[in-house]
Recover the amino acids of this structure.
């Protein structure tokens, strides 16, 4: 009896193989891609964007996303029903290409297709609809309640808009064994804000992929973007996804794209430092260099400067990677993947600009091209990764291999860090630790006499309250070091003296260092001295 069953099974396999071979040959003759459904794994996350009955009414199975958009397959790829299917789902999948499968291949998946329940994804392009959302969320507890109550189709909206309401710069969605953790980066520090069930996480991931134009279920890192319009703000949302052990790790970066809102006066530059910057800005050519590590606020400072310099009679071109703010009246240019800043900068110089913003100096070629721009009648505003203003000088001299031209071209070097501001609703006096007291004494002794406090300094911190989500901090402010290249400093830098000696000369000329500026802001009750000492070591 068992031998008879084996014969039947083998016969069925032969018949199925023959059927698939006939369909494959027909597809080849018709110039249509062919899929063997016995070897094709379907994605439930893709299928859930369709009504189950449409699979059967139109005899269609969505297979996967490819270079030609969504690939759908049918035993009858020339059926008029295919066009009806495309038309119905054009909003969610603007591009669809058709492949061929066998009748048996369709039948193999009927059980799965019949159990699919459609979800409603957000808009695939354009602006996110925010109607009916409460933007008053000011605590993580309330965010979690709203997250739990949100309809599946509103998950992405809730995460983005309420992240913005809490002033988060980034939202991290990190899948785990049983659920996904949502963390908000507030004022540079990550905080646990809520959790999502595994099922809701999958829906959120699907919405993120569709909204930002990513390929569904890719097993490699991807990035995308979309925009959100609020009543008084326009937000740019940048998406990064990366495969991890339990699923795609999602990072949602939120930018307020309106550069005209950025003002130099709001950066935190002290009144005694401002004349140095103002004298540098009125020069029609030269280099304005902003230095600091990643996340130190360089881009905000750059755009605040550009916003002040922007005028109808000025030709301003920016070279960015990526473009983070919109600047009306300026020509903003995105650096393409594989392209260098130096190559694009050479092309920009032929456009006869007055002001050039170069996103970052990363190598010798870019540094030399930037120097050429600065000494040939252009005002060039750019950034560099360096610990402080003085340290950037020998580094750039080494890159351009021309100390005299570089030092002649530099209008000003601005070094900065971002420090969390104390919440003014829960501010209270703070007694520094023994180690902090030692550092404070060093800074106090180094301050020029005219900047020293008249009495023993007092320090403060925030104890936490509902206004700051019980964190103790609200917002960030810059601490700055502004270096204008004096004749004495230029002479010393040209002679290849040590970095320590260069810093000594800069100090003798009366400029404030970042730690001194931070110390003064701490005494004024703006920032926490413990935060200053931590940030200054970055």
């Amino acid at each position: 009896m068992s031998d008879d069953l084996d014969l039947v099974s083998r016969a069925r396999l032969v018949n199925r193989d023959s059927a698939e071979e006939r369909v494959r040959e027909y597809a080849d003759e018709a110039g249509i891609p062919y899929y063997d459904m016995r070897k094709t794994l379907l994605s439930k996350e893709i299928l859930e964007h369709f009504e189950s009955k449409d699979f059967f009414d139109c005899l269609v199975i969505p297979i996967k996303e490819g270079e030609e958009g969504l690939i759908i397959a049918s035993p009858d790829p020339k059926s008029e029903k295919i066009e009806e299917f495309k038309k119905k789902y054009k909003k969610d999948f603007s591009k669809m290409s058709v492949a061929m499968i066998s009748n048996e291949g369709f039948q193999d998946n009927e059980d799965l297709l019949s159990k699919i329940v459609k979800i409603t994804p957000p808009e695939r392009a354009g602006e996110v609809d925010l109607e009916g959302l409460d933007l008053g969320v000011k605590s993580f507890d309330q965010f979690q309640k709203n997250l739990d109550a949100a309809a599946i189709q509103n998950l992405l909206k809730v995460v983005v808009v309420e992240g913005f309401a809490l002033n988060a710069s980034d939202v991290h969605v990190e899948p785990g064994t049983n659920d996904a953790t949502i963390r908000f980066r507030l004022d540079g520090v990550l905080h646990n804000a809520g959790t999502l069930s595994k099922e809701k996480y999958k829906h959120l991931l699907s919405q993120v992929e569709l909204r930002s134009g990513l390929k569904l279920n890719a097993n490699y890192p991807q990035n995308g973007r979309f925009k959100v319009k609020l009543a008084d703000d326009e937000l740019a949302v940048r998406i990064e996804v990366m495969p991890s052990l339990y699923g795609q790790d999602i990072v949602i970066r939120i930018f307020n794209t309106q550069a005209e809102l950025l003002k130099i006066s709001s950066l935190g530059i002290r009144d005694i430092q401002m004349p140095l910057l103002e004298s540098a800005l009125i020069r029609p050519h030269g280099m304005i260099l902003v230095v600091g590590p990643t996340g130190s606020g360089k881009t905000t400072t750059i755009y605040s400067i550009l916003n002040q310099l922007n005028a109808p009679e000025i030709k301003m071109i920016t070279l960015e990677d990526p473009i983070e703010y919109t600047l009306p009246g300026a020509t903003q240019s995105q650096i393409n993947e594989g392209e260098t800043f130096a190559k694009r900068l050479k092309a920009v110089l032929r456009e006869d600009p007055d002001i050039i913003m170069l996103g970052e100096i990363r190598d010798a070629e870019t540094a030399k091209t930037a120097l050429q721009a600065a000494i040939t009648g252009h005002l060039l505003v750019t950034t560099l990764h360096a610990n402080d203003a003085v340290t950037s000088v020998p580094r750039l001299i080494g890159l351009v291999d021309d100390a005299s031209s570089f030092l002649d071209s530099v209008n000003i070097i601005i070094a900065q860090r971002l420090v969390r501001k104390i919440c003014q609703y829960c501010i209270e006096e703070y007694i520094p630790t023994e180690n902090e007291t030692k550092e404070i004494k060093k800074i106090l002794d180094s301050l020029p006499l005219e900047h020293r406090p008249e009495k023993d300094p007092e320090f403060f911190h925030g104890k936490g309250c509902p206004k700051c989500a019980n964190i103790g901090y609200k917002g960030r402010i810059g601490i700055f070091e502004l270096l204008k290249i004096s004749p004495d400093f230029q002479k010393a830098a040209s002679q290849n003296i040590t970095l320590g000696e260069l810093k000594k000369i800069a100090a003798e000329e009366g400029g404030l260092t970042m730690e001194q500026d931070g110390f003064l802001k701490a005494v004024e009750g703006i920032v926490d001295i413990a935060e200053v000492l931590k940030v200054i070591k970055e």
About this structure: Confidence is low (pLDDT under 50) at residues 121-127. The longest helix spans residues 2-30. The longest strand covers residues 410-422. The chain has 20 helices and 18 strands.
